[in-house]
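FORM 12-B: Structure-to-Sequence Request
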């Protein structure tokens, strides 16, 4: 039975997506349906030919933001769970069984896995909500330890990173999905805030693992850095 719809959005990242699709074929194709969104033209074709799972491809005629793309993909979701997955994620094993176990019960909202970089170091993918002070210290180079240690089992957290989020579909629908006013960055923080406000859980589940080969584009691209700053300010003002 296919119980998860996985949404992957490519912004000229089809080569990365194809690596991820090979992982999907190897570890979890029997349980998922895929919605692949090409947000911009790409000379590299999507390699879907060897997949045994259902695949829908959306090709945008104009560029959309992160949240708008995943909300559009969700309209194609006919499964009880909906997963947002970044193109730069790699799957060594199937992460979904422990994540699904974290989403039992009507109060469940979203669950995210332990995230490692390609060298094996644990990333800080589960965090407390940002404040102005936290953002200033981060901008000045402060690098504190993780807000939620990964060696304490499943934990209720403020928010989990948008590189891999598994939602109950009814809960995603309840809160209206991502806020499309955020074009890029902080959509995940905002959605987790709204889930918690609705009485739903946000769970960090280290028993599930993924690899994140992060691009960190906003550190090199002034336009993306401005998106990052604008989204941070929007979140702080709305909070």
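FORM 12-B RESPONSE
SEQUENCE OUT:
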């Amino acid at each position: 039975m296919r119980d998860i719809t996985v949404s992957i959005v490519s912004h000229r990242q089809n080569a990365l997506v194809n690596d991820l699709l090979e992982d999907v074929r190897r570890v979890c194709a029997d349980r998922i349906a895929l919605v692949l969104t090409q947000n911009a033209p790409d000379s590299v074709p999507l390699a879907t030919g060897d997949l045994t799972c259902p695949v829908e491809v959306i090709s945008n005629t104009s560029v959309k933001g992160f949240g708008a793309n995943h909300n559009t993909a969700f309209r194609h979701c006919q499964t009880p769970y909906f997963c947002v997955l970044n193109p730069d994620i790699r799957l060594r094993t199937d992460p979904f069984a422990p994540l699904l176990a974290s989403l039992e019960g009507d109060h469940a909202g979203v669950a995210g896995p332990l995230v490692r970089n390609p060298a094996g170091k644990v990333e800080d993918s589960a965090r407390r909500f940002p404040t102005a002070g936290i953002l200033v210290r981060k901008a000045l180079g402060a690098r504190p330890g993780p807000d939620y240690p990964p060696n304490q089992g499943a934990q209720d957290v403020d928010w989990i990173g948008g590189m891999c989020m598994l939602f109950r579909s009814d809960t995603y629908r309840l809160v209206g999905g991502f806020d499309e006013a955020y074009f890029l960055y902080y959509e995940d923080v905002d959605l987790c805030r709204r889930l918690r406000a609705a009485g739903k859980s946000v769970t960090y589940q280290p028993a599930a693992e993924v690899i994140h080969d992060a691009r960190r584009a906003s550190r090199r691209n002034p336009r993306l850095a401005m998106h990052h700053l604008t989204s941070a300010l929007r979140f702080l003002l709305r909070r």
